[in-house]
Amino acid sequence: MLELKIQNLSKTYENGVEALKNIDLTISTGMFGLLGPNGAGKSTLMRTIATLQAPDQGSIMMGDLNVLEQKQEVRKILGYLPQEFGLYPSITAEDMLNHFAILKGIGDQQERREMVAYLLHQTDLYDHRQKKLKGYSGGMKQRLGIAQALLGNPKLIIVDEPTAGLDLEGRSRFLNLLGEIGESVIVILSTHMVEDVKELCGQMAIIASGEVLLNGEPAKAIDALKGKIWEKTINKEDFKDYKGKYKVISTAFVAGKPVLHVFCDTQPDDGFKPIEPDLKDVYFSHINNGRTVI
Amino acid sequence: MLIVENLARSFGVTKAVDDLSFSVQPGEIFALLGPNGAGKTTTIRMILGMIKPDKGKITFNGHPVAFGDVEYKADIGYVPETSHLYENLRGEEYIKFIGNLYHLDPDRVMQTATQMMALLELNPNGSQIIREYSKGMRQKLMIITAILHNPSMIILDEPFSGLDANTVSVLKEFLRAETRHGKAVVFCSHVLDVVERLVDCMLVMKNGHALAKGTPSEIMKQANAQTLDQAFSFLTGAKNITERADQNARIINSQSDRAANE
Amino acid sequence: MNRNPSIDLRQLYTLVKNGLLREWRGESNPFSVLSKTSSLWSQLIMIGLNMVLSVALLFFFIRIKSTLFLALVLSGALSMAFVGMQVLLVFIHSLISPDDYEIIGPRPVSSKTLYVAKVLLLFIFTGILTASQAIIPTIVVTIIYQNPWLVLIIPVVFLISNITGASILIVMYTLALKLISQKRLELFFGIIPLGMMVIFYSMSLLLSDFEQLLNHTDTSALWLKFLPTYWLTGWYRLIFDGWSWPTAVGTAAVYLFAYFLARSVLKYLSPEYGEYLSRTRTIKEIQPKRKIPSALTQLWHRITGFEDRAVALLIKAEFSHDNHFRLNVLCFIAMGIFVTLDDGATFVDPFIGGTLKERMSGFFLYWMMLLLPMVIYAEVLKSNSWQGAWIFHASPANRLKLVTATKRLSILFFYLPACITLATILSFFFHNVWHAIAHSVFIFVIGLVGMTLAIISRTRLPFASAHANSEFSTEIAIMMVASFPLLVVLFFGYGSITGWAIMTSVAYILFRLLVLWQNSRIKSKVRHWEFMP
In angstroms, rounded to a whole number, what is the distance separating the alpha carbons of residues C415 and C444? Predict the structure, then answer.
């Protein structure tokens, strides 16, 4: 089975920001979710795996392929959709996909034409294929980005916020597509939406301030919190006190009253009731917490 | 706070909104849901006086609103779906620009903005113009400028798009806090999980018509569904998404397999 | 078939084709933004300008000096600068761009393939410009001088000069990138076409002086030896004028320098350099906040309303960061100044008197200054960010005040300084400051009339319209109508202080009446404005 092994990866930018600090991850085929707040280092990690930038130290191996040394070979099997996807404004969608397909090494004209047509249909852009990209809406650009990432039978797909700008149907369609393809391919999905990771990903990591805080299976991460997440509805005036006294990981509001989720090994006080944790609890409990390896 | 009665608007032969009625109470979070082309944005634009209704009545805070009136807009904040901003302005300049459009005291504007920027973690460097902002940064800026003037109603179209989970959480908390002060929030979103947990009342639209109205549990009951996702899919007729997506994925995979075998 | 495994011919073909297609469609061409009609026209205008300029230069120099060599040196030098500038302004993004790295970077394109593609693009761009310059001079000069070798010599001279010129400019660009960000450099580029306009205009003014200098110049002149083309064409002298060691050594040295220059340029076309640019672009600039004295801010707040301040922020931002807007506004103002400099020399102070012809000689100046505020106002209505204008419709801002603020601030920021400059120039020509001020005041007032007419015909919010074709048809129409009254004014009413006072007062009253019409028109229109992106 194909595996991506990241070992001891570090990167510090010229302005002193430590974007990655000794990252260790092993990612096998299927969907891998990368969760983290802005500035966590997700994009830096994605760009490094996508061979766009070099780390200061560490290694990335994909099977026998050394990702940092054998960039050309990696790029042949890579599909990458960055968060800010650059386009040539004066080119049509069809021409752009065709151009990228040639660069990807899809030499046969017939095969290329069919692949481009299918991807345009798949992303609901076929009717707009002759339109210049400067006339594309944000959602259309995003869909085109997805299409170009899927060119040429990639074995490693990296997508950064792929569902931003898509409506419900588009998001559903894309996530289902990724879910199918992910069976024989490594798909790394960087997202803010915990729901996407919950629905799709067999493995996940939570990253913050350049460090991996959690690495493992979502189900196991949720299990690890069983019996440790407590819920209580409180009065608005008591909110500050509770925040100071307990580890409040999230707050929701029901009928105008704060409903706290608290992380604690034992029942914090009488009013708290245990609840079944979900992935959001996992995420929020780690963002300000220590590391967990499952 | 807001009463919409029999609102309608057509573009050519297309009825974008047809005989739509609903109301939003103070302190309520109200959601407008529907697929693309349902008429949500058109409805919002008519409420804001950006386009003229063909017929219908809009009442805001007890006063009827006619197309061309501007005074009532001082009490509404709006975050559109697409983050169209004057991109050559810096973030701070855009905030001042908005402050001037709403006739606000400049010092108060910067004070409110500074607090909101800290809350939403928007920290552009001094020389960055909006063109250089990421999607998330633009979204945060739009949200900040929508509440500078302390409106009694905030309308947001896809407000969570481009925001990380932490910021979404903070924003939800903030909107809830606003409603506790008697403000109304109207928003459109595709993220039904958030809608389910946040809203008090919702309206599902399609092709300009209202399909269902009520609390999330009422809507689910109406559609005989376990989740809001299912209810939405049932009501809007989008029940074949999964099957269609599966079929298309199979086409892609068989194409790839064929290429690999040749 | 691909003999060298590290260059993929198919990829090479598509990269070059893609680069040319994007350039042809004006993706990075600043001249294309001057004419939104079609970038094809911009390309053709650029090629046409090259042809005309090269022919004009070559024949000018031949007329002055019958020595073909000297003509080649001088026209080659100017062409070198001109082509270098065009490569820098128009084609640089296809050659050196961090965006390219972001798009091509993750794709399996070898460094060598990308590199060769960029080199080919540089040669193609320079080749097209060289061809446009060299074709006509080659044909005509060959016929005149009856020397078939010229068919080879002239194009070669132009090509070598142009590649050297492009290389020098590219190296300067990359050195500048080490010191300032690409964003700031591009802002500076926005002003270069204006600078070129100024240079050409100055050249035309100094033509007779230049002609005199050249008449006293021969091939031994010292200043000639500082021109690169003097040495790049040294082989021509060695072949046709006989061997000379200084010429041989000097020519060899310059060619060696050109070789090393070309090698360093080629380094900047490499993907590694693209990666470096992409990396350094992500390092954010931290700029200290400029402190505006609070007294000035307070004064500004006292004399302006909210809508004025909102529009002022927009105008400032667009002028600072939108090359299109800045270039158009500055070009129009520059044209006004050029016309003043041109006409002012022959324009006799109307208060002094003079023949009818002398009095009428100022007509074009007045006409130009009437057009100027109208075209400036037309520019302030447009923006690439026009969709951001939704905020005007969703906010309680007074739209009448927004429109009138746009007019007031266009006058304050652009038209008033232009009129002050006009007054300064006229005082130099008239040798009388008060007369110059008086005429400038009249021009200012008729400019206000023109601008008010423009608002009445085109009532819109600032920066709320997309760029469109036929952008100045309204303004031109107004000017055609205004020409006759203007002629009458200059012919009949203007030759005395009394006449000036009457004409200025009439113009001012007309302006006030038009303002009433303008306001009523704006009020009736704003109630029906919808926002339809």
Answer: 8
Confidence band for B262, pLDDT divided at 50, 70 and 90: very low
SS (H, E, C) A28-94: ECEEEEEECCCCCCHHHHHHHHCCCCCCCEEEEEECCEECCCCHHHHHHCEEEECCCCCCCCCCEHH
Residues C158-190: tens digit of each pLDDT:
888 888 888 888 888 888 877 777 667 776 766
User: Which residues pair with residue A159 across a beta bridge?
Assistant: A81, A189
Gap between the Cα atoms of C454 and C452, Å rounded? 5
B86·C383 Cβ contact <8 A: yes
Q: In the numeric block, which tokens belong to residue C362?
A: 């100022």
Token pair of C33, please?
Answer: 């933004």
Domain of residue B232: give its range. Answer: 2-261
- Distance between CA B159 and CA B145 in Å, rounded? 13
Angle ∠(C345,C349,C350) on CA atoms, nearest 5 = 135
Q: How far apart are CA C523 and CA C225, in angstroms?
A: 67
Please report, for the domain that includes residue B100, its CATH number: 3.40.50.300
CA distance A55 to A50: 12
pLDDT digits (tens, 9 = 90+) for C138-165: 888 888 888 888 888 888 888 888 888 8
CA C296 to chain centre: 33
The residues, any chain, with a CB within 8 Å of residue A111's CB and separated by 6 or more, are B259
C222 touches chain A (CB under 8 A): no
Give the minimum alpha-carbon distance from A109 to chain C in angstroms, rounded to a whole number.
11
CA distance C168 to C173: 9
Largest CA distance in chain B: 71
The identity of residue A224, as a single letter, is A
Dihedral over Cα of C428, C429, C434, C439: its sign: negative
C-alpha to C-alpha distances, B204 to A132, A166, B54, nearest whole angstrom: 34, 18, 21
Separation of alpha carbons B221 and B77, rounded Å: 33
- Find how far residue C495's CA is from the centre of its chain: 37
pLDDT tens digits along B30-88: 999 887 778 888 999 999 999 999 999 999 999 999 898 889 999 999 999 887 899 88
| Angstrom distance (rounded) from CA C474 to CA C478 | 6
Nearest to C380 by CA among C360, C351, C403, C349: C403
Give the minimum alpha-carbon distance from C172 to chain A in angstroms, rounded to a whole number.
Answer: 24
* The pairing of beta strand B76-79 with beta strand B153-157: parallel
Smallest Cβ–Cβ distance between B35 and the set A150, A169, A177 belongs to A169
Dihedral angle over CA of C209, C211, C212, C215, nearest 10: 160
Q: Show residues of chain C in contact with A100, CB under 8 Å.
A: 107
Residue of A nearest to B248 (CA): A122
* Residue C27 three-state SS: coil
Chain B residues at the A interface, defined by Cβ less than 8 Å, are: 27, 35-36, 82, 121, 134-136, 161-169, 172-173, 176, 179-180, 190-193, 197-198, 232, 238, 241-242, 244-246, 248-253, 255-256, 259-260
pLDDT in tens, C320-340: 888 778 888 888 888 777 777
What percent of chain A clears pLDDT 70, i.e. is strictly above it? 90
C-beta of residue B87 within 8 angstroms of C-beta of residue B129: yes
Quote the CA–CA distance of C273 and C256 in Å, as a whole number: 24
| B-C contacts (CB, under 8 Å) | 109
Number of domains in chain B: 1
Per-residue confidence (pLDDT) for residue A294, from 0 to 100: 35
Reported as half-sphere exposure (CB side, CA atoms, 13 A), residue C205 has a value of 13
Query: In chain A, which residues have their Cβ closer than 8 Å to the Cβ of C32?
Result: none
The dihedral of CA A223, A229, A231, A237: what is its sign?
Answer: negative
